[in-house]
User: Fold non-specific serine/threonine protein kinase from Lingula anatina.
Amino acid sequence: MATWTPVIFDLRDEPVVLKKKKGGAWKPDANSRYSIVKHGYKLDKTIGNGLFSKIKLAYCEKTNKKVAIKIIYKNKLRPEVQDEYLDAEVAIMQNLEHPGMIELYEAAESVNNLYLVMELAENGDLLDYILKHGYLSEEEARRIFRQILDVVKYCHDNYICHRDIKCENVLLDEELNVKLTDFGFSCPTSEGDLLTQRCGSYAYAAPEILDGDPYEGFKTDIWSMDG
Assistant:
């Protein structure tokens, strides 16, 4: 089974005091202060919302390009959730690289927030795209589904199950190519391993997850793709 070592990069110009926490990850000292804006990112409109986060369109002055910044509010999460899911999301995105995955450019942590600076998918998520156009042609649906299969297979080949595959987490770039995103529930696993954490989205979750039974992560990803 693969194990990932999460690394949180502090993006400020001045040094930051980091303290080690359980599991080998790092966090800023309680006296640290951080602003993503002061580090050369101009925030624009909100392009996505979650229970514990929002995604902002932003402009990076260093690279002269638009990016998406996911701002996760740590004070809305239980400490054990922060340790288990936030560290895992950053680590997985750092260690996996595939054209069908959204790319993580930088990550920064303040006392209250975690900032993930990511590739911008100009055409939004697959659900909005379908609603906007009414339906997908058979050819387009086949092309998109083939790309989803390819990136999910890559994750599984690297012992990672996603656990929240849904249309809202399939983004489309300017050429309408798939970019899988939101690895907050993802975890390392192997074929035959049984997981117990209930997570994912109701409309896409496998029956064993909804029933509270142990489940195999790879198989539940396959179920979700058929959702």
